């Protein structure tokens, strides 16, 4: 495999984004390609992973970058998972915003996903005597 290159603030082409999101099964994002593209464009930070010319991973954050950083997406093509790419993307994102006090993400309640975020220093919000709320609109 070619060495993976991590790149900041390069927005992939729409077709590359759709291919990546579809590959990991995030099809609710790809129902409206324009909406996905606009969301990526408006992100605070986008960090991508490339195998040559092929987009193999993406992490993006939203927020103000001063007091809060919300990690919105972290996805790696299925055939590239468990190779340390996700770890590198998150570390790059956290380094870029190391002075931000609140770094937040929401993820699926799966053992491997929880272990991954624990390994990067994330803890359930209950550990901070907090509670989180969410409201998802179905479309």
Report on this model:
By secondary structure, the protein is an alpha+beta fold. The chain has one domain: Gcn5-related N-acetyltransferase (GNAT) (Aminopeptidase, 3-Layer(aba) Sandwich). The protein is 32% helix and 25% strand. Helix 1 packs across helix 3. The chain is globular and about 45 Å long. The model has no long low-confidence stretch (mean pLDDT 92).
Element layout with pairings:
Layout: E1 4-8, H1 14-23, H2 27-30, H3 33-41, E2 45-51, E3 54-63, E4 68-76, H4 85-96, E5 102-105, H5 111-119
Parallel strand pairs: 4-5
Antiparallel strand pairs: 1-2, 2-3, 3-4
Quickly list its features.
5 helices; 139 residues; single chain; alpha+beta; 5 strands; Aminopeptidase
**Radius of gyration from CA coordinates:** 15 Å
Q: Work out the helix count.
A: 5
Low-confidence stretches: none
By CATH, the topology is: Aminopeptidase
User: What is the CATH class designation?
Assistant: Alpha Beta
Multimerization state: single chain
**Beta content:** 25-35%
Topology, number of strands: 5
CATH superfamily: Gcn5-related N-acetyltransferase (GNAT)
Question: How are the strands ordered across the major sheet?
Answer: 1-2-3-4-5
End-to-end separation in angstroms reads 39 Å
CATH architecture: 3-Layer(aba) Sandwich
Helix content: 25-40%
Tertiary shape? globular
Order of helices and strands: EHHHEEEHEH
Mean pLDDT: 92
Q: Tell me the domain tally.
A: 1
Task: Please summarize what this structure is.
With 139 residues, the protein is an alpha+beta fold. The chain has one domain: Aminopeptidase (3-Layer(aba) Sandwich).
């Amino acid at each position: 495999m070619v060495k993976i290159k991590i790149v900041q603030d390069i927005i992939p082409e729409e077709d590359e984004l759709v291919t990546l999101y579809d590959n990991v099964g995030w099809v609710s994002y790809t129902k409206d390609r324009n909406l996905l593209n606009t969301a990526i464009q408006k992100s605070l930070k986008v960090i991508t992973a490339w195998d040559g010319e092929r987009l193999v991973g993406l992490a993006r954050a939203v927020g103000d970058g001063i007091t809060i950083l919300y990690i919105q997406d972290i996805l790696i093509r299925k055939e590239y998972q468990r190779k340390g790419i996700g770890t590198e993307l998150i570390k790059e994102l956290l380094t870029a915003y190391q002075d931000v006090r609140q770094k937040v993400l929401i993820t699926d309640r799966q053992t491997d996903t929880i272990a991954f975020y624990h390994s990067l220093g994330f803890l359930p919000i209950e550990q901070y005597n907090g509670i989180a709320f969410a409201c998802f609109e179905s479309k």
